[in-house]
Amino acid sequence: MIVGRGATASRTALLLAEDGERVRMISRTGGGPDHPLVDRVAADATDADRLTELTEGADTLFNTAAPPYHTWPEQFPILSASLLSAVRRAGAAYVMLGNIYGYGPVDGPITPGLPLAATGPKGRARARVWEEAAASGVKVTEVRASQFYGAGAYSVFTLAAQRQVLEGRLALVPQELDVPHSYSAIGDTARTLVAASREEQAYGRAWHAPTSTLSVRELAQRLAAVAGAPEPRMEQLTDRDLTLLAFTAPFWAELHEVLIKPGQPLVVDYAETEKILGVGATPVDDVLHEVIS
């Protein structure tokens, strides 16, 4: 069973279905891919009783859902409690999709064994979700992705740069343009979720989704080259710009917490994922070809 209907949820469902697994997808809208082995159900995942009813008989529950970005501190505990209740009562294994916010600022490569030392509200919300699941006694693992890119991705890059680059417009980006940054492809993240669910030694700890590390300017240039678009025009948003944008949507105000300090690369180490789970990073240009197709 998969809770969520976004790009990673849909790709995970298709990978499982193509292997002959029966999949039930749960979301408020009942969305998801059209496949004979994928059953799409409209339900509220914060309703623990309903979620437990839907989870009965499932071998594994994958959670790829998250509350609206600006509500994480208030809403993640409610969603997390419902999911934990369902897997406990149904006796299912639990595979979580997380991110790297829980580590907080890190000097050097981010490895999955680092402590979850974030102090900001969104980072602590993410850390608590894992800490509570790990201490619950359920069979659980977490796959932590970096900033998403790829077909259907929803991230700073896709919001602030992708369409602008493809249309030859100026892209205003809330991160340094030439500092290395790790990106997780949607397809690689889904493959890691599936691989972790099938590997007994994956449970009881977290894993990193594979990443490709390049600056946002380099990623934009690669996208433009693949699409035959003009050379990207890019500028970095200032703190003042983000403050003004926050009047248009709360998402922008929330970025202040997770922006890394100036000049610091964000590099995610996924060596254990490749070695033990057998999942590596798809070449960047292949991922971008999916975006434009």
UniProtKB/TrEMBL annotation:
This is NAD-dependent epimerase. InterPro entries: Epimerase_deHydtase, NAD(P)-bd_dom_sf. It comes from Nonomuraea cypriaca. It holds the Pfam family Epimerase. It comes from the Bacteria. Residues 5-199 form the NAD-dependent epimerase/dehydratase domain.
